[in-house]
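new request in #modeling-help
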Amino acid sequence: KAGVTQTPRYLIKTRGQQVTLSCSPISGHRSVSWYQQTPGQGLQFLFEYFSETQRNKGNFPGRFSGRQFSNSRSEMNVSTLELGDSALYLCASSWAGGPQETQYFGPGTRLLVL
Amino acid sequence: SQELEQSPQSLIVQEGKNLTINCTSSKTLYGLYWYKQKYGEGLIFLMMLQKGGEEKSHEKITAKLDEKKQQSSLHITASQPSHAGIYLCGADSPGNFNKFYFGSGTKLNVKP
């Protein structure tokens, strides 16, 4: 089985722009979660999608949004980029996002905001 | 919110030495996960612990869960340069199982 894939792997944007990141989960997995990783804050939960619905959301501003398609692929969007949005964005997939269910991570998208 | 505290924050060991990384939770643990990350890359799943007293091993890495202490430990025996990386513990959020929390990570360097 192919693992979780994320595109693009690297991205450079300027302040004020918007960006869309994509995540394809492991085949059969229906839950996709997104995380932001920075040196200062570590790994923080952004949101989780299951069956095209956002089930959970972390403490991030509304500039961060996402969606999930019927094939379980997910995208996250960040509008009006700020310098502080520079980070490694990771997505993870699991079967159904249930209790004690392992999440498998993609390689991440490194976003640099100038 | 649940917090996971990892110790030590960083570790440098000589190749062949054993080491232990700890992860302590501020709340009851329902599922504890260990991941390894190479710098700037994704997380590689190592193992998951579900029950108090549970112990799992994969190659030279052993993890244990002490439910009473709300703590897990990761032990590497006879460390090798390939063990170098950042080790992260993660946990399900109580009552909110699809919301993971992670510790801040332990950076491990193994000197050949």
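bot summary: The first strand of chain B starts at residue 4 and ends at 7.
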